[in-house]
Design brief:
Elements lengths: L1 E4 L3 E3 L3 H8 L14 E6 L3 E6 L4 E10 L3 E6 L7 E11 L2 E10 L3 H24 L3
Antiparallel strand pairs: 1-8, 2-8, 3-4, 4-5, 5-6, 6-7, 7-8
C-alpha cells in the first residue's frame, strides 16, 4: 500500500461551501489540468476521464462526513485500486484547510514511476480547490 499526503492549503471558502462543491463530481472538471485530461464524463457521485498518454481513471464518492471528509474510491479498469480522501478542516466561518490522502495498491516498481507525478497532481488539485471563490 502506498500512501501519499498532499500539502495542506488554506482556502478563503468555508468548509461547508468547499464540501458542497467537492461532493459533486460534476465540479471536478474545473479542478483538472485541461491540457492533461480528455474524454471527461461525470455524474453527481462519480466521474471518468483519460489522462492523456496514460490511463482511464474512474472516481466514485463512497462516503461523506459533512463538512469534513469526502471518501472517493477508484472504479472501472484503472491501472491499480486506490482511494482518495479529501479532508476539510474548518478554520473559521469563512475559511478552511484542505488536503488529500491517497492510498493505492501499487507495487514497488510502479511506485518509483508514479509516486512523484501523483503527488504533483494531487497537490495541484489542492491548490485549485483552495483557490476556489465559493
Amino acid at each position: 500500500m502506498t500512501a501519499i499526503e498532499t500539502k495542506h492549503e488554506n482556502s478563503n471558502s468555508s468548509a461547508e461551501k468547499l464540501f458542497d462543491f467537492l461532493s459533486d463530481m460534476n465540479n471536478y472538471e474545473q479542478l483538472m489540468p485541461q491540457d492533461k485530461i480528455e474524454k471527461w464524463n461525470s455524474e453527481e457521485d462519480k466521474c471518468e476521464f483519460n489522462i492523456k498518454g496514460m490511463a482511464r481513471i474512474g472516481l466514485q464518492i463512497v462516503n461523506t462526513q459533512r463538512p469534513n471528509l469526502i471518501e472517493i474510491k477508484s472504479f472501472g479498469k484503472v491501472p491499480f485500486e486506490f482511494d482518495l480522501n479529501i479532508h476539510l478542516v474548518p478554520i473559521n466561518d469563512q475559511s478552511a484547510e484542505l488536503y488529500m490522502i491517497f492510498n493505492g495498491q501499487i507495487n514497488a516498481f510502479m511506485k518509483m514511476m508514479v509516486e512523484k507525478p501523483l503527488k504533483n497532481f494531487f497537490n495541484m488539485l489542492v491548490d485549485e480547490g483552495a483557490a476556489l471563490k465559493l
